[in-house]
Amino acid sequence: MALVNITTVGCNQTRSTLGCNFTYQKEKNNSTNIDWTKIGLFFERLEISMKILLTFIIISTILGNTMVLIATWKERSLHQPNKYFIACLAVADLLVGLVLAPLKVYQMRHDNVSRSKMSIHLCRFMVWIDTFALTTSIYTLTFISFDRYLKISKPLQYKSLMTSSIATKVIFIIIFISTAFATYSATPQSGSSGILITGNGPCLQADPREYYLLLFISVFLLPILVISIMYALIFLVAHRRQKRWQNGELGQTSTNLNEQTATLRQDMKVIRMLVIIMGVFILCWSPWFVLISYLLFGDLLNLNKWYKNMSDIYWGNIIYQAANTLPLFNSLCNPIIYAWLDQKYREAFKHLFRQTVSWFRSRIR
User: Considering Cα of 288, then 292, then 293, then 295, what sign does the dihedral take?
Assistant: First the structure.
């Protein structure tokens, strides 16, 4: 019987992690027999599957988010401060499709020795871009929740409070914070291997625990807490206002009541869309944060104990790859949600599609 000692190559040597390329050292001891030929075939098939999935994510993410940006640029109905935040979110998602996901596919083409010799500049860039994309996404979503609360709670003052100039300044601040956080994460002192563990070779760090704890609190836990509070307040304000309208406490006529109710319903549809976007974000990112917490702080660090048989190896790596791919999958979900739930984007996409078809027909003729 053999005891399997699994260490990672191209990952932090002080923390064994699932999903990296493994080297296996067999030591004689009492343990379950493992068929290493089958394990090798499993990793080959898993790698092929991941390449196909990542290719699909890359193409879909680029197409979807490019449509959002073009529609926002060309359609006057989308030239609104709140839509600029959606465009900012689309830019962050587009970076994932254009840069981060392709670099992950590029990584998969190299063996362990090649990865260990990866250029420090490419390595740091990968760490930088995945941290920047996540931070931009989460802080944009956070401010969108505040913007929607402002729209519902102060409908008459909203246009003066949230102008295009103010929206541009807010986006600049979000980008500045994301750039600072990403730059810190890419420095040797930060202890970071990238949010999605993109660091290899020269990027290996001694102990990433403090960095990931900071990441979990500042880029995931606190923003989600703020967003949850904002949306709870939104529904509370909307519910109270609807009751006052129905009871005639605002002194409005029946015609005004119908108009205001229709406006509120439209606002609630937009808010529902944003809540779904936030829900998808949490569903896509939570597994990764849970897994990385176990890997860094839990008993999973002892992989000799965790990997007792072939089934553990199979499921351990499948779970890791799923948790590490879901954040990338999140980047292609947002344009689908817009097209499904937001009427203005739906009409803009249809108009853009008709223009594209007309252009192709004119070129063919």
Answer: positive
Token pair recorded at residue 192: 């970071």
Rounded percentage of the chain residues whose pLDDT exceeds 90: 11
Say if residue 352 is exposed, middle or buried (CB neighbours under 10 Å; 0-12, 13-18, 19+).
middle
Q: Write the CA distances from 293 to 191, 203, 211, 298, 321, integer angstroms.
A: 15, 20, 12, 7, 15
pLDDT of 10-57, one tens digit each? 343 333 333 344 333 343 344 455 677 777 788 888 888 888 999 999
Tell which residue, 301, 206, 304, has the closest CA to residue 6: 304
Closest by CA position to 343, among listed 249, 273, 290, 264: 273
| The residue type at 163 | T
Q: How far apart are CA 223 and CA 235, in angstroms?
A: 18
Q: What is the pTM of this model?
A: 0.77
- Tell me what the mean pLDDT of segment 157-173 comes to: 90
Number of helices and strands (H, E) in the chain? 13, 2
Give the residue with greater pLDDT, 16 vs 184: 184
Q: Are 146 and 231 in contact (CB under 8 A)?
A: no
Strand (E) or helix (H) holding 267: helix 254-297
Which residues does 228 contact at the CB level (< 8 Å), separation at least 6? none
Residues in Cβ contact with 22 at an 8 Å cutoff, skipping those fewer than 6 apart: 6, 7, 8, 9, 43
